[in-house]
Amino acid sequence: MDSLGRVTAEIVDCFQCPRLVAWREQIATDKRAAFRDEEYWGRPVPGFGDPGASVLIVGLAPAAHGGNRTGRVFTGDRSGDWLYGALYRAGYANQPTSVHIDDGLELKDAYVAAAVRCAPPANKPTTEERETCLPYLRRELALLADVQVIVVLGQFAYDVMVRELGIRPKPKFGHGVEVSVPDSGRTIICSFHPSQQNTFTGKLTEEMFDAVFQRSRALTSPTR
Predict the structure, then answer these.
(1) Which among 38, 105, 142, 223 would be 20 to 30 A from 167, CA to CA?
(2) The listed CATH number (3.90.550.10, 3.40.640.10, 3.40.470.10, 3.20.20.60) that belongs to domain 4-219
(3) The pTM is what?
């Protein structure tokens, strides 16, 4: 029988994509100066959160010096600061920051994953790498039976989920766009990715990001 624990173990032990394996290990050796005294994770990064979650958040891939360093998705970088800050304000997290894997962060009613589990060069996975990694997300989605809302962070995650869930025709991506998943009762909510490229330029503001998780609250029935 499959389980989130089994998926996590298989993700962590994955060596299927030679380019990504080489890159994640190189970054773990050629560390950023600010983290030179830390031991980098340097492996694929599994999903994280509440197995009974009603909300699944899907990003692109771990950051080279974020999740690839800490071993937990969206942890230890600016994007993670934005995400966990928003989840805390919405009541999904017990603290507003996440700096390392043992910092006490807990999620309630939310689960965070990525379309690709290794940090890719230039933050751009190939199509083959995306397809190789997709079965992990597919299994997580099947095991997270209480999920009612899927928040996709950015165009890449949106494209992956639309293809996986068989949504045709595909609505145009845009911040706040909602897409019903046929025959499932689930809803996709689109958000700009909380990357510095978006947050520093004002393309994504804190108010815009908070509105996504306020909406996810409104769309989900209480599970606790």
Answers:
(1) 223
(2) 3.40.470.10
(3) 0.96
